[in-house]
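Two proteins, back to back. First:
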Amino acid sequence: MTRRSDRPVVLVKWYDFTKWILGHVDNFPKNQRFVFGQRLADGVLGILELIVDATYSDKKSKILLEVNRRLEVVRWLLRLAFDRRLLAGKQYAYSGEQITECGRMIGGWYKQAAAKEGAIDEASQGAI
């Protein structure tokens, strides 16, 4: 069993962000919750699942590239939520800060994992 101190910091941070965003999705108007809110909830939960997968995988770099792509999708969904007035300005700012911070952590983790795996090339360096 993995001790709490063995867990990547980004996993704990993303878990906390996931709890926060799911609480806000629950407060979306009913007509938005079941269409738009579901996509947002699925997005953050999918990222959480991928981060857990990367934690225990020997081939982390490919998984982390997918995390990075999904972070970008969630970033755009949050922007859309803000534009549709489903999130307040401070909520949108907080979510942007959290995604940016987690994205930086994922990027650093990717570079470290890719170097270990010998998977870094010029094309993938531009992706993170």
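And the second protein:
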Amino acid sequence: MKEKKEMINPTTKAIILDGSREDDREARLASEAVRAEMTRKAIEFSYYVLRDIKIAPCTGCLKCWTKTPGECTINDEQRKIYTDAGRADMLVLITPVTFG
């Protein structure tokens, strides 16, 4: 049987959103491994540690529907994140799974 080779487009772009806690060792190791592998495969990526970024909560103003469709009118770091996400071919979420 012929072995399948992994094919990744050389222009692949990715975004990594790290929503883990600062003391989460496993998430830190996973994040490091993902970034190392993307670097090894020459995948261009943006990396955001969400706990270090101030993002305003939604105010419910609905301006993203009426004034600037699809774009929040609050000018903070989330604009850069959703711009990168919209251009990405791959999205990686690093986050704890919690219940209750």
